[in-house]
Amino acid sequence: MSLSINDVYKVARLARLGVTEQEAQTAHAQLLxxxxxxxxxxxxxxxxxxxxxxxxxITQRLREDVVTEHNQRELFQAAAPQIKKGLxxxxxxxx
Amino acid sequence: xxxxxxxQLGAALRSKKISSVELTQLYLHRIAALNSKLNAYITxxxxxxxxxxxxxxxxxxxxxxxxxTGIPIAQKDIFCAMGWRTTCGSKxxxxxxxxxxxHVIEQFNRVGAVNLGKTNMDExxxxxxxxTSYFGTVKNPWGHNAVPGGSSGGSAAAVSAHLCAAATGTDxxxxxxxxxxxxxxxGLKPTYxxxxxxxxxxxASSLDQAGPMAHSAEDLALLLNVMAGFDExxxxxxxxxxxxxxxxxxxxxxxxxxxxxxEFFAAGLSADVAQxxxxxxxxxxxxxxxxxxINLPNSRLSIPVYYVLAPAEASSNLSRYDGVRxxxxxxxxxxxxxxxxxxxxQGFGEEVKRRIMIGTYVLSHGYYDAYYLxxxxxxxxxxxxxxxxxxxxxxxxxxxxxxxxxxxxEKNDDPVQMYLSDIYTIAVNLAGLPGMSIPAGFGxxxxxxxxxxxxxxxxxxxxxxxxxxxQQVTDWHTRTPQHIEV
Lengths: 95, 486
Prior knowledge:
The structure holds two protein chains of two kinds. Chain A is 35% helix and 4% strand. Chain A contains three helices and two strands; from the N terminus they run H-H-H-E-E. Chain A has helices at residues 5-14, 21-38, 73-77; strands spanning 83-84, 87-88. An eleven-stranded mixed beta sheet of chain B has the order 1-3-2-4-6-5-10-11-9-7-8, sandwiched between helices. Chain B has a single domain, classed as Amidase signature (AS) enzymes. The interface between A and B is large, with 51 and 70 residues.
């Protein structure tokens, strides 16, 4: 399964990364060499091996369903590129 | 004063030989003089550091103080520190002022340590040479044409050049150990889950772990005592009894079994690094240790596995940078999708975009089983190799890196060559084990060599003991780069 230039455009769109034609071509060449390195994995027999998603075999800790955070809207919105009346501004999405 | 250990600095502060304000100013002056050459710091804020130093002096005037009260520590710019610009080495966060403290920062604040500034790093910790930083390359204090390593390259260079008493780093695939090795300092990546990831900007969450970087194992133990601890805000933080990581420093090493993985001494290891590592193993034998040959047969797969899992997790973690709630927003755009695409295209650097694309691809429909699931299965095989190995030995040793520091620009255009420089460190992250690097001599070019010590889960105190005993009979960790005046 060789990665095509169309795959690069598709992946860039999924990841919301704008790419120029030149950038897509460079990325394509580099991703091909990286995936040839990754291909080494395919020959390994992993039948019956459980996937390891985490370094420790522990279950997710749960907590009481109570409010722990207080409202810090102004502090957190201070880092936003554009706000108005306590709301985040984005380009119009509804006609 | 600059050559003092953290214990000695603490004693000087408590006996009023020097105040925290004076010590902080001493480092700030060095940073002002040397940072233009080394570029180890992204952000220095004299006033904020001195406020903490004055508070520490007030604390020191009373009786109850901590070993690190008043000591200036450099923080990797991946840790959110309230009121401090926190960039993660990226244009995306170049104007981001953190509105809260990471757990690691809280822990240092709690004991009255001084935040001396935020150190340079590869963008979002993705890199092995510090060359992907938006804020420019860090120079290795041992040779200005050499890379300092990455991603915690600024912290390593700052410790090496005495631009701080000690520093913090994070390690996802070797980002504490590799720069520590290349800059001739000591660095420790704890067992996954020992240090909270709260407020530490996420790269690959199942691998990221913070740890200390300093001159000696003794210093590392004091720092880890502060950094470690349960934190309910990180769902992977482990609930364990509090440990004193310095408790075993002075134990003799009689009977210690050192495992030497034959895979770490095979083709690809440069002769000068091999020689330095063999000499340090010989030193350990003199200290009473014995050597066992071990195998880590799946470790050769750690790089392909890592370059599936880490980008997959990164592509998910970095989806939060949308130009809406915080971070960079492109100046011009036509609609919402265009704003996302332009903000992310302009805000992220090449390596970060490359990894987001790899991760998005391996998680996409039709490829998930072949790449992501297969990588997770091999991750278990790699971890099991270590379980088998630790039945025969107490610690594992080998080189931290295959060569000493390479030159700036040398591997820049070839991502695969860059990735291969982490061949000995990545397996440790995949298994979640603790690993460290300590100075072990110099290569043919006069650049430092690092000895890697890998321990079993939660065996940090023993690893620090093993490193400390070596540092009692060698002086590699006390060497200072030629052109750096102390």
